[in-house]
From TrEMBL:
Recorded superkingdom: Bacteria
A Pfam family reported for this protein in Swiss-Prot or TrEMBL: Amidohydro_1
Domain Amidohydrolase-related: 325-460
Native species: Streptosporangium amethystogenes subsp. fukuiense
InterPro entries: Amidohydro-rel, DHOase/Allantoinase_Hydrolase, Metal-dep_hydrolase_composite, Metal_Hydrolase
Protein known as: Dihydroorotase family protein
Signal peptide: none
Amino acid sequence: MSRYDLLIKGGTVVLPYHGEIRADLAVSEGKVAAIAHDIAAAEAGEVVDARGKVVLPGAVDAHFHLGIYRDLATDAFEETRSSLVGGATTVLSYFRTGSHYLDRTGSYEEIFPEVLAAVSGRSWTDYGFHLAPMTVDQIAEIPYLVAEHGVTSFKYYMFYKGFDLAANSRDARAFTMGDEYDLGHLYLILEQVARVQDAHPGLRLSLSLHCEQSELMRVFIDRVRSQGDPQTLRAYHEGRPPLTERVAIGEATTLANHTGTSVNLLHLSSREAIEAVVLAREVNGAADMRAETTLHHLCLDHDGLDAVGGLGGKVNPPIRTRADGEALWQRAADGTIDWVASDHACCMEAEKGERLWPARPGFGGTALLYPVLFSEGHLKRGLSLARIAELASANPAKAYNLWGRKGSLAVGFDADLTVVDPELAQTVTPELCLSGQDHSPFEGVGLTGWPVTTVVGGQVRFRDGAVVGEPSGRYARRA
Ligand SMILES: [Zn+2]
């Protein structure tokens, strides 16, 4: 019998908030069991040679959309498989009732066990869910969701108010299948989350916010469409400009400060949006407001995508300018932005089509989480390896009650990690991503520094571009 199940030998181990150490890392029963300068290979059942490689805590991809456009079980299998390519070992996925997903409404007490059953046994990574209360009755279920299912994060979409984008009509309730969905509904959710927070002092209960202001979107979209209705991603950006993000951030943080609720400001896309967060933090003092951006808002710009053509890069909020991307990189480096996620939503090229406004929003990117941060963040812009581990893993783990299990490499933490070859240079193709999605807006982007081995719960599940074994991801209860 070996003392350890698995040994990661000879690598540079990256510790968030600390730095890099030259160490061997041993795993027993799915947990990190030892970190030491030299652990003998003979002590382990399996050895991963990490000489010349970088060992990072498995990423916690905190913004994901399993089952939004396809059945949950298929998405769970194919899209968490894609996560392994990018070094993510946990995904936290958004789910709501209404159009898409299960295309129905009802109580989460009835629906959420169905969601869990569909994903169970199909996920390559560990997984959890953020849930969006679309009805007043669902707001009343929050204490049940915390206590029974360990769900500690919820969501509100600022832009569904009065505007159904899927049908391109002004009838949002046909889309949400919910109650009046306005700032009043948001206020009720914020109050309830704050109330339930009081009963769980050891946890961080939070509301995630998609910040775009729909009344302004209505005006700007009508204006773009009346001026020749160009079918470009630049037009999409002009129809939902950064001003709509800024105003929505102001509205949401004002209410959250009043109720004392912790919030997560999702997928900030522009300089204006992140500066609105800086201002909101100043004005609101101690309020807990965490900031997220995405790989695509860091990496892509609408003119670049329009030059290639197609609508594969349509997403909410829209892809902005190169200057916005650089502003987000600066704020990711200086600590203003807390984490980077993929906002992965598997969406086929056919669902995009050739018409801008009916095209479905969203696309996949989880396969690129560490490659983008390593190549564009560390190599190109000088972010430290510890900082990219904070952005990809430690900070989302802390925000969503996974710290102590996920987010770092320390004895007793889950053995979730990825071994990155810092010299491996690859050009993004859909095939490389191991996703069900048949296209990628990142296609053609060259990145240096890719995972060559990804370990989930002590099991090697990805090696040299291919998955290994069977999905063994577990549901991550967070309370
Ligand atoms: Zn999303």
